[in-house]
Amino acid sequence: MPSASAADRAFAVAAVAVLAAYNNVVGRHPWHNRWYVPLNAGATGVVLAAAVASGLTGADIGFGPGSWRLGRAGTGWVGAVAAGWLVIAAVPATRPVLSDKRSAGLSGRAALYQAAVRIPVGTVLWEEVAFRGVLQASLRRVLPPPGAIAVTSGVFGLWHIRPTWQALRTNGLADDRHRRQAVIRVGAVCAGMSAGGALLSWLRERSGGLAAPIALHLATNSGGAVAAWAVRSRPVR
């Protein structure tokens, strides 16, 4: 690892601070949910521009030659996640895993928008470019790879505090009677997200690009949305 400059360290610290706060501060406002896709698409462009201005290259971020390959590990993880959603949707005992009041009333068209537009552009592309792309690359200039992965994954866990709390409230699990349990659940979910982020960061390092983590993230989020819609739309017998 080359000696880091003061500018490199400052950019890495700023990236950590901005991403730790963004989803928990900006995401609190109703207008963020209403303009979720264009806002996050715009944020993706902003972080890419800032990264290039800081001296990071396309290859550093994960857009270099050959970065479109998933690799054996990426392909295996994507296939495993897809198969997992199929099993969960097919087995009656596991279908409650897909229950979420936030998506219970979605029409087929709205569910398609979620799976094909909102999640891929507003969530997956934004988060993978920001975390596995820009943040991880900026941290690699000041830390060895394991340290960069650890910090990136920790910030990714913090990123999910507000949406996890909001999901619990929507599902009636964060009221006064459940507040203590909700705090524990938020901590557990964020720890799980950090672990998932570590896997995505590892795939980024192993494959040399963002294609593998993007594909796995997309299979996880959009695959879950499609599985939930398929279960909801099944005729009741």
Task: From the structure above, extract its key features.
237 residues, mainly alpha
Task: Describe what is shown at a glance.
By secondary structure, the chain is mainly alpha-helical. The protein has helices at 6-25, 30-34, 36-53, 58-61, 71-90, 108-140, 145-159, 161-170, 179-207, 211-233.
Shape: globular
Tell me, rounded to a whole number, the average pLDDT: 89
Helix content: over 70%
Which structural class is indicated by helix and strand composition? mainly alpha
The number of strands is: 0
- Portion of residues in beta strands equals under 5%
Q: Count of helical segments?
A: 10
What string, H for helix and E for strand, traces the elements in order?
HHHHHHHHHH
| Unreliable sequence segments | none
What integer value in Å does the Rg equal? 18 Å
Number of individual domains: 1
- Major sheet details: none
Distance between the termini: 62 Å
Can you describe this structure?
By secondary structure, this protein is mostly helical. Helix content is 75%, strand content 0%. It contains ten helices and no strands. It has helices at residues 6-25, 30-34, 36-53, 58-61, 71-90, 108-140, 145-159, 161-170, 179-207, 211-233. The model has no long low-confidence stretch (mean pLDDT 89).
Break the fold down into its secondary structure elements and pairings.
Layout: H1 6-25, H2 30-34, H3 36-53, H4 58-61, H5 71-90, H6 108-140, H7 145-159, H8 161-170, H9 179-207, H10 211-233
Helix pairs in contact: 1-6, 1-7, 3-6, 5-10, 6-7, 6-9, 6-10, 7-9, 8-9, 9-10
